[in-house]
Amino acid sequence: MSRLAVFLPRRIDLTFLLAFVVLTAVGIAMVYSTTFGTFRAGLSGRQLLFVVFGLAAAAVLAFIDYRILLRYSPWIFAASLLVLVYLPLFGPRIAGSKSWIRLWGGFQIQPSEFVKLSVALLLARLLEGDDRPFLSGKTVAAIAGTIGVPVILILLQPDLGVALTYMPMAGTALFFGGLRARWWILLIVLGTLLVGGSWFLLKEYQKDRIRTFLDPGLAAQGAGYQVRQARIAIGSGGIAGKGWMKGTQSRLGFLPVRHTDFIFAALAEEWGFLGVSGILGLYGLFLARGFAIARDARDRGGAMLTLILTINITTEALVNVAMNVGVLPTTGITLPFVSYGGSSLIACWGMAGLCLSVAYRRFVNV
Amino acid sequence: MTESAREDRRPVLVRLGRVAIGAWVVFLSLFGVYWVEQILRGDEFARQAENNRERSVPVTAPRGLILDRNGAAMAENEPSFALLLYRRETRDLDGSLQYVAALLGRSREDLLKKVERDRTNYDFVPVLLEENLTLAEVGAIEARTLEHPEFVVQTSERRTYKNGTVAAHALGQLGEVSQIQLARMSGRVRPGEAVGQKGVEAAYQDLLAGSSGARTFIIDSYGRETAELERVEPVPGNTLYLTIDLGLQQIAEEYFASRVGAAVALDPKTGEILAFVSSPSVDPNLFTRRVSRKEWAEILEDPDHPLNDRVLQNLYSPGSVWKAFAAYGILKRGIDPSERVHCSGAATFYGRSFRCHGVHGNVDLATALQVSCDVYFYTMGKRLGIDELAEAGHAFGFGRPTGIDLSHEKVGIVPSNAWSLSVRKHPWYPGETISAVIGQGPVLVSPLQMSRAFAALANADGALPTPHLFHIGENFRSGERFIYRPPVKESVPFPPGVRETIVEGLWRVVNVPGGTAYASRVAGLDICGKTGSVQVVGQKDTKKAHLLSYELKDHGWFAGFAPRSDPKIVVVVFVEHGEHGASAAAPLAAKLCAAWLQKPRPALPGAEAAARPAAAQEAPAAGAGNGG
Q: Residues of chain B with pLDDT > 90: what percent?
């Protein structure tokens, strides 16, 4: 077999690739539309530049055998923890939190987005090492630590939005690793008590602080302003939408943070229910192919890695879509591949690259 | 290996099936929600989007009024117009700023800076571009709302000080909130808002500020307001009654119209400041509108430093006024006040001749105070030594803050052996005591400290009151009042008879021929006090003083109280380059005493509130909180 055969397209999961490439392209179009004519114009060009970096990240991660990455995942994890410890101590304070590292040329990266990759790798390795129908207590503890330590460090920055995006990984790891029903019940009861109980113990002003922390718009404007405006944007889009760059809600600026958190509402306004269906369809396709890659993966580690990554990305997307229409509270979770933001985009492409790596090496005798 | 891996996979595949079902349910639900919103309710939302020109503007709370003790206005509010920029309405920021910069005669860069400052804020929160627009500017902007819907004129209230420079240093001023203040008062103030920067306005910022409201309204496509959606009313700030008596204040201000210096009048029992003058001063109204570069330069380059608060931030040698406290040291030592010292116009100590300003013959303590005989005090000062003199100064509160409810108070210097060793790194020279005892040398005090010390001489129990400007706070809505709560009382430990002996001397200063302030006596008032003059440079020949230029003339002090029994007012007057306390300072002190003591007593607003001590808690806390 010639060396060229190694790169045969049939070994690359083209449908999976197509799904996130189209999502990214839609994202650039929407960032362009939502920032055109404002002082943020030009962000779409930057987003395009981020895609180049994303492509590089994906290519590198797809090219390396994920088995090697799994083997070294504890070291990768340890290195990323160092970065997360550095940030709250020495990181520059930008817009109230120490979540960023400044780079050259006015660019900055948000390490917490990239740490997700190392967490996913370590989780996959842990699950590979415990392949009984139900996880041992030791593995559960290791999973809790793998998620809990970075999440606590991220909360210290503080960045609740990104910390929340780690949660689906915990759920996925525990579910696919296998947990007996009584443990699930315990987890749910404990979680409810912790969240609900602490809410009742808080004083009113503390609750207000949390509300404004979750949603800064609340402080600046009457409550519910953002959600009201986003719903008007989505609803007024109708079936076919108002057309690209013609959304009044978005163009006139009624829609808050429309190039990041609320980009889906802008899309729904301009491209209507058809556009919404298309985007949801692409995420559905992405998830379905993720499941297929996991099913066909050569080993348990690859399957787990793919499941953790694709479920994490899709959950984030679904939460954002629900948040835009007011079904879930505003929490600062962005739409993967679509929302403006270099770190998130590059990290998502890196995750997709890992999944492609698993798909590429699905045959045992490569 | 492959086979075993396949075997292990089965529970995973079962779980995968479950997750897949769950995921599709979520996908379908979201499709459903968007179906309802976009297709079933699409027309309804489309209509809302059509009419949707919702805007929200913060409504700044009216700042609390500042009144004098009788309720006469000192700081009020009047309508003013501010220009807001809505970034989300802005298509072409450069063009918009160019247009408005030309209209207001401002540089585009200045305006751009204000926009940049708000960059991290949501773009539906307006940027405060400019305050205090003229009616002509408002008209010009309103006329072009169609082309420039991004600009909105907001009507608010502007601080006005209708008496201009009267009590300017006590009132302080407003200014745009600084980045540091913004961080310290997070949540309570927005960028671009005015907060107290000095004086009472700063010390009681929290009390005066109230809390702002917001109104949300709908505008049509022409930018006109069509309906109000939501209105959160601002809560106005508390009304503040100061202890100042505007009538007394005016008398002192008039006197200082052509002079440089400071004056303080106190109620000795309570520490209430009745008049507070630091001259010259800057009209605080200047800071509530745009201050031009030229105006700023004039203020900063004024050789009389009008921004300095001479009452509590400038330090001066006390001069002969210090003799009143040296007298305390002398008597405390147990020296007989009737012991006489011979004054022949000069005396020699430590091999150096020290002059007196006259030839006084044999003088006892009371006479020495009356005629301000230096030789008597030189002699006694030598006998006491610097540490006992320092102890006397400390007893009257010198060398430490008076505790006034304004910030940045200076504490001055009461020299002693320990002070000399720690500050100057060499021991105190005994010869220096001879000039220190008559208030020259390193001794430095503020006029405010002087007034507090004289209050202790005035009070029969020697109490040292805490001078303060806060009298009564009044909640704008409920009318609930809270009064000033004095901190722990200090007092001067007068041995029996000591205070009476000093007061006798101080009484003679004004009321017995030969007293240095005899010219300023007022029949029936029994003013007691002490004059002082402070050498600006060492004068070789005092007789040529009238030939000296203004800058070289002595500073003049007068500090006193009236009436002699049960004093009701303490007055300290300090005139820079006034030459003599007797001629420059004492006349105003006499005027203030006369005005206060001969004034019919109206029922003070404090009388009623004082009966409600339960509410008397907030005030000192507010003062202390802003003292830093």
A: 50
Backbone angles phi, psi at B556, to 5 degrees: -115, 135
The count of residues in chain B is 628
In 3D space, the residue among B206, B202, B155, B153 whose CA is nearest the CA of residue B175 turns out to be B202
| Cα A304 from Cα A325, distance rounded (Å) | 32
Q: For residue B14, what is the nearest residue in chain A, using CA coordinates?
A: A176
CA distance B398 to B416: 13
Structure tokens at B554: 């002595």
The structural domain count of chain A equals 1
Which one of A235, A257, A277 has the shortest CB-CB distance to B41? A235
Left (φ > 0), alpha (ψ -120 to 50) or beta: where does A241 sit? left
Partners of A82 in the beta sheet?
none
Strand order in the sheet with B528-534: B273-279, B261-266, B569-575, B555-562, B528-534
Domain range for A340? 10-181+216-360
Task: State whether B38 and A239 contact (CB < 8 Å).
Answer: yes
Q: Which domains does chain B have, with CATH numbers?
A: 55-242 (3.90.1310.10), 246-279+312-610 (3.40.710.10)
What six digits make up the tokens of B212? 């702002």
Choose from B37, B39, B93 for mutation: most chain A CBs within 10 A.
B37
pLDDT in tens, B372-392: 999 999 999 999 999 999 999
Give this prediction's pTM.
0.58
Distance in Å, alpha carbon of B126 to nearest chain A alpha carbon: 10
ipTM of this predicted complex?
Answer: 0.91
Which of B19, B38, B45, B121 to mutate against chain A (most A CBs within 10 Å)? B38
Give the closest-approach CA distance of A248 to chain B in angstroms.
7
In angstroms and rounded to an integer, the radius of gyration of the C-alpha atoms of chain B is 33
* pLDDT tens-digit map of A229-275: 888 899 999 999 988 888 777 766 677 778 888 999 999 999 999 99
Q: Are strands B54-59 and B213-219 parallel, antiparallel or unpaired?
A: antiparallel
Tokens of B257: 């119209």
Contact A314 B23 (CB under 8 A): yes
